[in-house]
From TrEMBL:
It comes from the Eukaryota. This is Aurora kinase. It catalyses: L-threonyl-[protein] + ATP = O-phospho-L-threonyl-[protein] + ADP + H(+); L-seryl-[protein] + ATP = O-phospho-L-seryl-[protein] + ADP + H(+). ATP binds at K24, K43, E92, Y93, A94, E141, N142, D155. It comes from Vigna radiata var. radiata (Mung bean). There is a cross-link at K139 (Glycyl lysine isopeptide (Lys-Gly) (interchain with G-Cter in SUMO2)). GO terms for molecular function: ATP binding; protein serine/threonine kinase activity. The gene is LOC106778956.
């Protein structure tokens, strides 16, 4: 599949299997390429929906960015095609589905599992940032797991390819950095903030600034109103890492390189990216 990415595909090249899920703009099915028997996820987006929500440009940007990214922790987009009614995205199949479901099922992750996911995410983000891509919408729903439990960043709908500070408002409030909540210019460090939020959520089961209303979440983010519950037990090294990422001044947040070298990561993460 990978080597043949320049090839023109059409729907009859695939046997369509069970539905995997339904997103805002389309349905996703497991599918198998007839010739190679290669299993993929096929995302079907109706042109009518694209028309209605005027998201052609966003989709094209998402496809071009995702197509150019080749990293073990970034969901591959192998190619795309369309017919008169739909656009089809040929995606890497993430057999174990959404990380969010695994988190809901378990309540929270062990330090080993959380550190392994944070290291995988950090490596993927370092790769994206090198290519001048800021994801901006990293949250558990956009993280998938492959057949070995390896984390894959999916959904590049809000990402941008940029060399300068950005100004647009986007994303879900709980995961937004203060500079985005305030609609100020922001850069790569927004993804570093999100790593702090996710690290907290993986260990405690809920994001740190959760509140009954959006206004209260907003206030808590702006104050960086961070506290660590006493249960479940979480080591002081993990809390140190979280505190060094959830820093209001974006220039003072721990860099991706420093996250990879942090004692909590070194002690707990599996560098292969697979949780035992
Ligand atoms: P989306 O439209 O991208 O939000 O996808 C809808 C749902 O389909 C997701 O929540 C996942 O559960 C599932 N899904 C999407 N892409 C894949 C994939 N590549 N592999 C496995 N499941 C997927």
């Amino acid at each position: 599949m990978g080597e043949n990415s320049e090839r023109q595909w059409c729907i009859s090249d695939f046997e369509i299997g069970k539905p995997l899920g339904k997103g805002k703009f389309g349905r996703v099915y497991v599918a198998r390429e007839r010739e190679s028997k290669f299993v993929v996820a096929l995302k079907v987006i109706s042109k009518e929906q694209l028309e209605k929500y005027k998201i052609h440009h966003q989709l094209r940007r998402e496809m071009e960015i995702q197509f150019s990214l080749k990293h073990p922790n970034v969901l591959r987009l192998y190619g795309w095609f369309h017919d008169s009614e739909n656009v089809f995205l040929i995606l890497e199949y993430a057999h174990n589905g959404e990380l969010y479901k695994e988190l809901s099922r378990k309540g929270h992750f062990s330090e080993q599992q959380a550190a392994t996911y944070i290291l995988s995410l950090t490596k993927a983000l370092a790769y994206c940032h090198d290519k001048h891509v800021i994801h901006r919408d990293i949250k558990p729903e956009n993280l998938l797991l492959d057949h070995e439990g390896r984390l894959k960043i999916a959904d590049f709908g809000w990402s941008v390819q940029s060399r300068s500070k950005r100004h647009t408002m986007c994303g879900t409030l709980d995961y937004l950095a203060p500079e985005m909540v305030e609609n100020k210019a922001h850069d790569y460090a927004v993804d570093n903030w999100t790593l702090g939020i996710l690290c907290y959520e993986f260990l405690y089961g809920a994001p740190p600034f959760e509140a009954d209303s959006q206004v209260d979440t907003f206030k808590r983010i702006m104050k960086v109103d961070l506290s660590f519950p006493s249960t479940p037990y979480v080591s002081s090294e993990a809390k140190h890492l979280i505190s060094r990422l959830l820093v209001k001044d974006s220039s003072r947040r721990l860099s991706l390189q420093r996250i990879m070298e942090h004692p909590w990561i070194i002690k707990n993460a599996n560098p292969i990216g697979v949780c035992s």
